[in-house]
Amino acid sequence: MIGFRQLGLALLVPFVLGASASSYSLQLNGQPLPGSPLSDAWVPVWRLWSLGVSLRIEPKANRVPIEDGTFIPVRWQGVSATIPIDQLPRLGIEVETLPEGYSLHKVMAEPQQWRVESEGDVCRFVWETDRPVTWRIKEAGRHVIVELGGAGGAWPATTAGSSVIKQITLTSTQPGMLVMDIERRYPTPLRLNSDGRHFSLELERFYARETTTDLPQGMQYTCHQSASETGPLVWHKLFLPSASAYKLTTLIAQKQGGRFARFPVSRLASDAGAVVAVNAGYFSMKEDYPIGLLMQGGKVLTSPIYNRTFLALPQQGKPFISQTQLSVDVLAASGQSAEVDWFNFPRQRNSLAVYTERFGLQTGTVMDGACWEVAVDADGRVEAEADHNLPIPLNGFVIAAQGPSVTWLRSQFPVGALAALRPKVDQIWPGLNEAIAGGPTLVRGGQVALTAVEEKFAADITQGRAPRTAIGIGAGGDLTLLVVDGRDTGHSMGMTLTELAAQFMAFGTPEAMNLDGGGSSTMVINGRVVNRPSDGHERLVSTGLGILIPKGAVAAGRQAQ
Questions:
Q1: Mean of all residue pLDDT scores within the chain
Q2: DSSP string computed for 194-229
Q3: Nearest CA-CA partner of 520 in 263, 273, 346
Q4: In DSSP terms, which residues pair with 441 in a beta bridge?
Q5: Are the C-beta atoms of 422 and 380 separated by less than 8 Å?
Q6: Judging by DSSP bridges, how do beta strands 351-356 and 342-343 pair with one another?
Q7: Which whole-number Å values give the CA distances from 456 to 1, 429, 442, 452, 495, in the listed order?
Q8: Alpha-carbon separation of residue 368 from 244, 294, 408 (angstroms)
Q9: Are strands 328-332 and 419-423 parallel, antiparallel or unpaired?
């Protein structure tokens, strides 16, 4: 338990005052207490309760706890207990020696000094009392609670803080007990030095510490905590060596029937049997579909947008980061083809789009000038046509045109005609099995190369500090997944894109790209969310990246500092 703190060395044997200590009597605040003789200058503990001193006695140890691991010796006489008089000042009790005995007085210490100062990397809260007090300290999140026993008088109620201390509030929970609530702006390492009268609470303004956990197959998880002029920062890194038998793969949330959905990252990991998972691409929070290039099993599931950066996972060879606007071609029996502008993405004006059953039950298009759609069944034959909102055939697709491409679509694909899709991405990167878009690029060729403007990202992504998720690729193909906590001034401020790129440079990672961030940023290891999502809980996301566990592997690690 935490009790009152011992301010000096306890006497382990009783001492004798006068010729016959047993003849001495005890007074409380000048009033004699009949029937309470002292024995070798030890005072009955129960008498201290009359002075408002509360002690917990440990019978087996025959001593009273003052602070963790520190005790005042207690003598037991049947069911009564006594405590050495010389220990009483530590409990805020003044002992007056009288010819006929002792007189005890509860004394309230008052402040002599009171200040907050900053020096170098340390913020220091200093106070001094006119006489010794007992104390105990505990942490509760951002709050440091210091309890002072035997304190009273003219203490301030609230004190303004500093760059680390937000404010200091003082309350009295009972007579002689003062409670200091020191609220930090963010959790920071601290230490309290005291001799019972002089107190110095030191809080580190700037610090950095990391804890690393080894996982199977050479993987390592590192949690970084630091503070600087910009505030606190927490990030989580998962390193996957290229020699590992584990495999990085795309995770896609889908409803029954294969339609796009949104799930927490922890569910994406659980469904795939992944030991590690993070959120990945951008998505529509209203309609659930991913935004940007998405490939799985060699098939394009959604089309690129604004030539944004994507992560490629070839079936053979090392992962790589690139950019593309290519999607798929629509092929007609005549040999003619046309490039698709949007794949499983809402059709825009003057464009050609393709929808599969992943998008939904129907295309959801509306009449917007010249429009035309044809539905292609699982055998690749046009089975229906209409001017908008066609049902999407099972294992088939719908080609939807608006504007100039309508004439070509109607001439090439009447009902009964054959139609096929040909991925164009595969023509440039043969054997590309999986791909997932994010962006912007952070590092290219070992140099910072932010492409936020070219990729038309909005200010909510490009400006300011925020939670971030990113991935880097080492020269030998090793992978680094990074999740940065943010939007929490008491925990982590987050990173700018420039700071994120600099962090990958510090890792020595020559290629890196940003992924979806903000409230989506989540890292799950062995089924547990290890970071602190800024929404206060996991956000539902449409895609993720997961590290698959080989059959029979045990996902357990040992911690190393």
A1: 85
A2: ESSSEEEEEEESSEEEEEEEE-GGG-EEEEEEEEET
A3: 263
A4: 513
A5: no
A6: parallel
A7: 59, 24, 15, 6, 20
A8: 52, 28, 17
A9: antiparallel
Read off the pLDDT band of 222 (50, 70, 90): very high
Whether the predicted pLDDT of 561 surpasses 50:
no
* Distance between CA atoms of residues 10 and 84, nearest Å: 9
* Cβ contacts of 109 within 8 Å, gap of 6 or more: 92, 129, 130, 131, 132, 133, 148, 150, 151, 152, 153, 197
Bridge partners (DSSP) listed for residue 76: 81
Predicted local confidence at residue 134, as pLDDT: 76
User: What does the alpha-carbon distance between residue 305 and residue 554 come to, in Å, rounded to a whole number?
Assistant: 40
CA distance 117 to 537: 37
Distance of CA 309 to the CA centre of its chain: 26
Nearest in space to 90 (alpha carbons), one of 107, 68, 113:
107
The string of pLDDT tens digits covering residues 274-304 is 999 999 999 998 889 999 999 999 999 999 9
Assigned token pair, 512: 């890196």
Q: Which DSSP helix (H) or strand (E) runs through 397?
A: strand 397-402
Neighbouring C-beta atoms of residue 453, cutoff 10 Å: 9
Q: What are phi and psi of 219, to 5 degrees?
A: -70, 150
The whole model's pTM is what?
0.76
Residue 503's H or E segment, with its range, is helix 497-507
* Residues pairing with 292 in the sheet: none
